Amino acid sequence: MRGLDAQTDLRTADREVLIDISIRQQAIIESLEKRIAQLAGRAIRRRRTGRMPGLKPKGDRQPAPSRKPRKGRSHGFARVRMAPTRRVERVVERCPDCATRLSGGWTHRTREVIDLPPVPVEVTEHAVIGQKSCIRVCPRCRRRCAPSPQLDGIV
């Protein structure tokens, strides 16, 4: 049987060469399937132990140093809750399984939501007024005066 070399073209090869190639490919496929099964078996065994090979055992770890209790503060620095302007009570009226009306209850927890209303924007245009080249002239002393372009205290 002739084998496939670098010069053989599969489109023009004769029947015996193609059968030989097919038989070799089938042998390669079978060996690869065996290898896949071996690797899958290792992965299953690895999953059973729960650890990857080469990891240090958990018993070698040193225990974490015990911490001292925190020093108590004389004043709390959390944000103080505001007096609510509206209260919404969220209550389950009926049992979700049997639809019986429920009774009793207490405030389990609360959550403060602060709604900020949108404020209309105020746009101020600062116009520099002048005559020729933005300079004004005093009618008495003929001094030319220009406005201050600085808006440090305003903007």
Characterization of the model:
The structure is a single chain. Strands 1-2 form a two-stranded antiparallel ribbon. The protein is extended and about 115 Å long. The mean pLDDT is 78. It has one helix and two strands, in the order H-E-E. By secondary structure, it is mostly helical. The relative contact order is 0.04.
Brief synopsis:
The protein has 1 helix and 2 strands, in the order H-E-E.
SSE layout and pairing:
Elements: H1 15-49, E1 136-137, E2 144-145
Integer-rounded radius of gyration:
43 Å
Chain-averaged pLDDT: 78
- Helix/strand/pairing category: mainly alpha
SSE order: HEE
Number of helices: 1
Please give the share of residues in helix: 10-25%
Low-confidence stretches: none
State the separation between the terminal residues, measured CA to CA: 93 Å
Summarize the main sheet: 2 strands, antiparallel
Order the strands across the largest sheet as they lie in space. Answer: 1-2
Shape assignment: extended
* Strand content range: under 5%
Number of strands: 2
